[in-house]
Amino acid sequence: MGTSLAFHIVFAALGVGLPVLALVAEGLWLRTKDRTYYDLARTWAKAMAILFAVGAVSGTNLSFELGLLWPQFMRYAGGIIGLPFSLEGFAFFIEAIFIGLYLYGWERLSPVGHWLTIVPVAVSGAVSAAFVTCANAWMNLPTGFSLAGGRIVDVHPFVAMFAPPWQTEVLHTTLAAYVFTGFGVASVYALAFLRGKRTAKVLAGLRIAMLLGAVAIPLQIVAGDLSARFDAQREPVKFAAMEALFHTQAWAPLTVGGIVDAAHRRTLGALEIPGGLSFLASGNPQATVRGLDAAAPDDLPPVAPVHLAFDLMVGSGTLLLLVALWWFAATRGRARPIGKWLVVALGCSGLLALVALEAGWVVTEMGRQPWIARGLLRTTDAVTIAPGVGAAFAVFSCIYLLLGATCWWLVARLGSA
After folding, report:
1. Backbone φ, ψ for residue 255 (5° rounding)
2. Taking Cα atoms as reference points, which of 76, 82, 120, 116 lies closest to residue 98?
3. 296 has a pLDDT exceeding 60
4. For the chain, how are helix, strand and coil distributed in percent, rounded to 5?
5. Nearest Cα to 290, choosing from 332, 320, 247, 242?
6. 317 and 220 in contact (C-beta within 8 Å)?
7. SS3 call for 261
8. Using alpha carbons only, how large is the chain's radius of gyration in Å?
9. Burial of 335 (0-12, 13-18, 19+ CB in 10 A)
10. 271-280 pLDDT, tens per residue?
């Protein structure tokens, strides 16, 4: 499941962000009549079709895996959080319909009419991701039901769909998609620029993609702060694992980096900022922050990978913010010459955005362990007991490798066209 999610989240994020780039590019063509923007929009439309097809296949695999790998979880949760999954299906079909209209309507619709068909794609892509994130929010803090004799009764689907973490998670996830798409696409054009392909189309693609990424990344920093404060109040065990805080204390330090020694409840070689974590959690450097010692040993997540993933996410996001500020200072968002080292930094930004995206998802999923639905159902009790999971994992891994290689080849051919 982890492999499937790590693969699919890339295409899900691009499905949210790439339609926005196409919307902007075609809008600029309508406004300026500059053929460069028209060509750019058509190229992104083709890329969007390829990525949508691959994402649909990997997303379908995930749907089957929910039932095949987690039968006990679906027995408990299916009747509670089925609503957001159903609504996600509607959003997906709306997205698919309008992608078809957009792809095949270039010569058949009026210019403005065609441009408007990409709007539902951009909206439904974001809404689709939001519905799935709502289901994940419920897993972190289950609500909207009652328990009677070990059975789930009195289900309120809308209450469950809008579980307490939904606002911070949806905001953080949606902005992550825009950050990844903006910097990911910008890095492609930056690398083309470094290889000497300095056409108007490359420069326009770089500029539009960086506008999206540079606007989204500071908003993402703010959203991350809101998410961390929420976790400190409502999910303190995950928050403590993120920061490798083993002991409840006032003036809790902000721990950056280091090697977690969970057996001895310490972090070696870390940079510690006194009072930093207390200030991050509550705005007061003297505040007491709950550590991992406040939870039962059997309820603790794997601290080392959660802390490492959190540091990777925050570190990558901080570097992306610096790149965005550098780009704004050099260009002020306009078509101006940029230096070689800035282009190199832009070329590396796509990898940083990918690391931030994947690491953030690892924090969300592993930080909830050992629960698949916190306080309701443990992961070990939810997983299938059927044999042959190892063989299925090998088969699906080969499928993902084939899909990834095919997608890479198709997109590369598109870029060289």
Report:
1. -100, 120
2. 120
3. yes
4. 75, 5, 20
5. 247
6. yes
7. strand
8. 22
9. exposed
10. 888 888 888 8
The label of the residue with tokens 């996830």 reads: 173
**Does the structure show a pLDDT above 70 at 416?**
no
Angle, alpha carbons 258-261-264 (nearest 5°): 135
Where are the extended beta strands (E) located within 114-190? 146-148, 151-153
- How far apart, in whole angstroms, are the C-alpha atoms of residue 159 and residue 175? 24
Q: How far is residue 384's CA from residue 375's CA, in Å, rounded to a whole number?
A: 19
Q: Cα dihedral sign for 154, 150, 301, 353?
A: negative
- Contact call for residues 123 and 94 (beta carbons, < 8 A): no
Query: From CA 64, how far away is CA 8, in angstroms rounded?
Result: 14
**Own/partner pairs, 143-148, CB within 8 angstroms, 24+ separation:** 144/80, 145/80
Cα dihedral 373, 376, 380, 386, rounded to 10, equals -90
Residue 334 is given by DSSP the state S
Instruction: Specify the pLDDT at position 333.
Output: 57
What DSSP character marks residue 290? Answer: -
Contact 147, 132 (CB under 8 A): no
Whats the size of the chain, residue-wise? 417
Contact 35, 43 (CB under 8 A): no
* Tokens 């750019």 found at: 40
Q: Are 304 and 311 in contact (CB under 8 A)?
A: no
pLDDT reading at 153 higher than 80: no
Per the structure block, which two tokens stand in for 185?
């696409």
pTM: 0.91
- CB-CB contact of 327 with 214 (8 Å): yes
| Rounded Cα distance, 3 and 115, in Å | 36
